[in-house]
Each structure stands twice: as C-alpha cells, then as structure tokens.
Amino acid sequence: MARQELKERTAEAEKITINLGPIDLGQIDLLVQEGFYANRSDLIRTAIRNQLGQHADVVKQTVARKSLVLGMQHYSRADLEALQAAGERLHIHVLGLASIASDVSVELALATIESIFVLGSLHASAVLKTALAPRIR
C-alpha cells in the first residue's frame, strides 16, 4: 500500500453502532439543537475522548505491560520478505491500526506472521484476513 493511500485510509473513521434509549437520545438532540455540538456524532466523539482522557494512565500502563505498538504499524512485502530470509516470525501486537500491504501473498503472510493481536483496526485484504484468521486473537 502506498504511503499516501495509507495516510488517506487512516484519516477515515471506523463506523460503530450503539443503542441508546429514547431519553438519552432526546437529551443529545437537545444539546445539538441548542448548539453545544454540531451533531450527534460530535457529542459522542467528545464523550469518548473525555473518557479515554480519564483513563489515559491505564491505557499507557497496559500498552507497556502487553508490549503493544501504540499508533500505526504497517507491514510491507519487503518487511516480510526480510523476516522470511532471516528465518524469523512476526508477532503483531498493535493498539491502533495495523496494516499489511496489498501485495503480500498468502504464502508469505503464513510463512512470516505467527500471531496477530490488534485493538483497533486491522487493514489487510479479505484473502489475507481469511488465511490468517486462526492466528488472529
């Protein structure tokens, strides 16, 4: 995946679905109507960021304890070929975005990727995700 394409994909947001009761939803709509937030999503993103800020120390400690890469980690075909040449296997542990280049073959991925643990988003072709499914926790 080209760096520009990766940069564009990381700017995209993942969609999630939540269920709210009518009273909570009504209060959100009221705050939007009164101009406190641009829309429902703005309020929800703000609330999530506030909660993540309150728990930032726990996140930092857990990232360190579990040896997670925090942020974005990209694996190119060249990266995996170098691992294969060295006879090494990869354990992907990421909190954020892990991506595997679109030109990585199933054979190369299976030969080099031992395990995948991602809290966030894994970007890889559907074929790779299917082949690596038993190694994804």
What do you see in this structure?
By secondary structure, the chain is α/β, with parallel strands linked by helices. It has two domains: 18-54, no CATH class; 57-137, no CATH class. The chain contains seven helices and three strands. The chain has helices at 3-11, 22-33, 40-54, 56-65, 77-86, 106-112, 126-132, and strands at 69-75, 90-100, 113-123. A three-stranded parallel beta sheet has the order 1-2-3, with helices on one face. It is elongated. Residues 1-8 have low confidence and may be disordered. Pfam families: RHH_8 (PF17723). One of its GO terms (biological process) is regulation of DNA-templated transcription.
List keywords for this structure.
2 domains, disordered N terminus, 137 residues, CopG family transcriptional regulator, alpha/beta, RHH_8, Ribbon_hlx_hlx
Query: Biggest sheet, strands in spatial order?
Result: 1-2-3
What fraction of the residues are assigned to beta strands by DSSP?
A: 15-25%
The value of Rg in angstroms is 19 Å
Number of strands: 3
State the share of residues found in helices, binned by percent. Answer: 40-55%
Classification by helices and strands: alpha/beta
What's the total helix number?
7
Report, as a whole number of angstroms, the end-to-end distance. Answer: 24 Å
Query: What's the number of domains?
Result: 2
Specify the overall morphology: elongated
The H/E string reads HHHHEHEHEH
Low-confidence region ranges: 1-8
**Mean pLDDT over all positions:** 92
Largest sheet: 3 strands, parallel
